[in-house]
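FORM 12-B: Structure-to-Sequence Request
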């Protein structure tokens, strides 16, 4: 949207809503909730393979990773997997926060 002086105006409400929706993926959450432990581990491997192909994670991938690693953390049978999943989930949450911060202050 352009202002009268030729600059760009930002619709703050639309931007806030867009950022809020981008921080959750209800479809992926349902998909993950339906997975058993073996399927969750297979999804983790698929996620890591996809991640290794990219230089930077998109916000969508970060959100999906957070959902996946939270499910792994809750369903882990070993302390090691629970710790790994928890650590990676917290890292992704931090990255999402950094990504969601406005460019201006």
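FORM 12-B RESPONSE
SEQUENCE OUT:
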């Amino acid at each position: 949207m352009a202002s009268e002086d030729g600059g760009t105006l930002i619709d703050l409400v639309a931007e806030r809503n867009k950022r809020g929706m981008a921080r959750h993926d209800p479809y992926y959450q349902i998909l993950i909730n339906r997975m058993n432990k073996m399927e969750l581990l297979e999804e983790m491997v698929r996620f890591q393979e996809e991640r290794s192909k990219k230089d930077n994670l998109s916000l969508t991938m970060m959100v999906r990773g957070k959902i996946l690693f939270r499910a792994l953390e809750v369903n882990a049978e070993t302390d090691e997997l629970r710790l790994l999943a928890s650590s990676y989930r917290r890292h992704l949450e931090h990255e999402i926060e950094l990504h969601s911060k406005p460019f201006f202050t």
